[in-house]
Amino acid sequence: MRQLQSRNCPRWFMTTMPLVQRTSGVSKKTEMPFQEFCNFRPRILIDVSKIDMTTTVLGFKISMPIMIAPTAMQKMAHPEGEYATARAASAAGTIMTLSSWATSSVEEVASTGPGIRFFQLYVYKDRHVVAQLVRRAERAGFKAIALTVDTPRLGRREADIKNRFTLPPFLTLKNFEGLDLGKMDKADDSGLASYVAGQIDRTLSWKDVQWLQTITQLPILVKGVITAEDTRLAIQAGAAGIIVSNHGARQLDYVPATIMALEEVVKAAQGRVPVFVDGGVRRGTDVFKALALGASGIFIGRPVVFSLAAEGETGVRKVLQMLREEFELTMALSGCRSLKEITRDHIATEWDRPRVAPRL
């Protein structure tokens, strides 16, 4: 993935993404300690000649527990943007989640062909806009709503401030065209931060999760949960599932990495709803760790954007295939023939190790 990131990418992408990585909390290990925090405990002498990675998410069968997270404004990375990502996800037999702030509309993405797609939702101050957008997604064949709940305000994204980030004039937030909400004005710091401050509803509460259920029949995934307390509240509010997410470590510094928060959320859910995780997955081994900790599946974001910028649809297909092959190999070498055979006993985490008091 680092090779994909480093070649064929537009100049803006190569200059801004390292800044994003350094200033978005990644350096504080809130996004990527998947590789560091645990060891495998593989089982041996098991017939692994056949490996089954298929699973079911909200009743929909997919080829593997690796799905695509919502990432905004993908046409900044590649001219085909969300079209390319949608086609790649469909070819891989997995789920794509379309961002509210996509540069392709729900109708345009649906027109790319068949596929299982979720729609990520930000709640605007104008609830008529929200209701209209949800109904459009439903009519376009989207199968679930992923409600982002960790962004009443935008975190301090210093790269965006330094670059005075805004959408290029030739792009719009396509889902909001015709509503005078599709353009992002320039600002003295971050155009995105100004847009969020002006449009996103800071009063969002658990009552709104229940309100959403009155305007749509689609299942609602609550995205942005990292504590047991909020897990229980989400289930009480009628959530069909939970996505453990810290928004790519770009909202609040010093929150735990999602892999560190995952087990707490899984235990609180007690099997009542599926728990998914996004953020920090870079290898098939990371997928295995997440499932061993109780996740029903994972979502990837940055790897998709990197590969999209490098090679368009082909790049996204490559990343999905790489992760699939690595995950399959990890299952085989761990003695797991299906997802249900992946258990907590297959990994040992830092917090499993007994603490030995130092000798005085």
Descriptive keywords:
single chain; 360 residues; alpha/beta; 8-stranded parallel sheet; two-stranded antiparallel sheet; 12 strands; globular
Task: Explain what this protein looks like in three dimensions.
With 360 residues, this protein is an alpha/beta fold. Helices cover 38% and strands 13% of the residues. The chain is built from twelve helices and twelve strands. It has helices at residues 2-6, 11-23, 81-92, 106-110, 127-139, 158-163, 191-199, 206-215, 228-236, 258-269, 284-292, 302-334, and strands at 38-40, 55-57, 60-62, 66-68, 96-98, 117-121, 144-148, 220-225, 241-244, 275-278, 297-300, 347-349. An eight-stranded parallel β-sheet has the order 4-11-10-9-8-7-6-5. A two-stranded antiparallel ribbon has the order 1-12. Strands 2-3 form a two-stranded antiparallel sheet. Strand 5 (96-98), helix 4 and strand 6 form a beta-alpha-beta unit. Helix 9 (228-236) packs across helix 10 (258-269) and helix 11 (284-292) crosses helix 12 (302-334). The protein starts with a helix and ends in an 11-residue tail after the last strand.
Structural class: alpha/beta
* Proportion of residues in extended strands: 5-15%
Mean pLDDT: 86
The biggest sheet, with number of strands, parallel, antiparallel or mixed sense and barrel status, is:
8 strands, parallel
Shape descriptor reads globular
Number of helical regions: 12
Radius of gyration: 20 Å
Distance between the termini: 48 Å
SSE string, helices as H and strands as E = HHEEEEHEHEHEHHHEHEHEHEHE
Helix fraction bin = 25-40%
Q: What is the β-strand count?
A: 12
Q: Spatial order of the strands in the main sheet?
A: 4-11-10-9-8-7-6-5
Low-confidence stretches: 18-29
